Amino acid sequence: MGSYLTDQESQDAAVRQIFSLEDHLFKGATNLNDAGNIIPGAMMIHDYSTVQVTYMNDWGCNKLNHTKDEINDMGKDYFTRFFKPEQAESFMADLMSLYNRKDETELYSFFHQVRTAAEPDWSWYFGISKFFRRRGTSNLGELIVIAHPIAGMGNMVNKVTKTLDENEYIVKHYKNFARLTKREKEIINLLCTGKNTADIADVLFIAQHTIKTHRKNINKKLGISNYAQLIRFGMAFNLVQCLIACFDLSLFEGFLFLNP
Q1: Are 71 and 52 in contact (CB under 8 A)?
Q2: Continuous segment of H or E residues that includes residue 244
Q3: How far apart are CA 186 and CA 103, in angstroms?
């Protein structure tokens, strides 16, 4: 593995890119096959309601030497056929825990080893995964996973970033997103749906002064001062669970976020 695992900038960029890719898929700017073709690594969709791989790009299929249909038919056997048992057990448990929390804002990254019949030696990969909701559905059972070989990861990041035209807003604000707690993400969602401090306190069964403290902390972490900025951030990082894309955000300029 050596120095490849210490390239934090490459890892951070790969994490940001999954947001950009999800945004492309949700908005219909690209489809799964087109998105899969630009990823110089394995891109797959896991359906955790059936525990099977429902999609894998050509790169992944070629690496595993199996067709999409063959991989789909493997079901749970997929997780034990190509991965070290102890590693597969660990990340499968973590992913199932993520699935049970139903938090589509949460990311899970992991290092793992893969071995195929064509390549008998174990190779290290960096995986990044996130549950996502397809446009027009309420199903949160699908997990998008991108796995890249550790060797040459820096080149991969540059290629994907250039191809996706990675969202500058996501790049600029990703570290702010990473600082948010799960509770703060919940409050951002509720604020973006129009709820005030009293409403949120009732929904979360928390005292109003605690909600006010959370709001001040959110404002400080994100460096925002009005409702339009909050909504833009929430939409960029998929923290908003309502259809607000059609709103004219200019209508909210001047609405101070710290106002209860």
Answers
A1: no
A2: none
A3: 10
16, 171 Cβ separation under 8 angstroms: yes
Residue 201, phi then psi, degrees to nearest 5: -60, -40
Query: Checking DSSP bridges between strand 123-132 and strand 107-114, what pairing results, if any?
Result: antiparallel
Question: Rounded CA gap, 127 and 90, in Å?
Answer: 13
Give the Å distances, CA to CA, from 26 to 59, 135, 162, 182.
Answer: 22, 5, 20, 23
Structure token pair of residue 28: 């219909």
Helical (H) or strand (E) element with 31: none
Query: Model-level pTM?
Result: 0.59
Q: Check residue 135 and report its DSSP letter.
A: T
- For residue 144 the two structure tokens come to 């998008």
The Cα 185–Cα 176 span in angstroms is: 12
62 is written with which tokens?
A: 């070629």
Per-residue pLDDT tens listing for the chain (260 residues): 333 334 555 566 666 667 777 777 766 667 778 777 777 788 888 887 777 888 999 989 998 999 999 998 988 888 888 888 888 888 778 877 877 777 777 778 777 888 887 777 888 888 888 887 666 555 666 888 888 777 655 555 555 555 555 566 777 787 888 888 889 988 998 888 778 899 899 999 999 999 999 999 999 999 888 877 888 788 778 777 543 333 333 333 333 444 33
Q: Is 65 left (phi over 0), alpha (psi -120 to 50) or beta?
A: left
Q: How many CB atoms lie within 10 A of CB 56?
A: 26
AA identity, residue 233: F
Amino acid at 8: Q
DSSP conformational letter for 259: -
Q: Determine the length of the chain.
A: 260
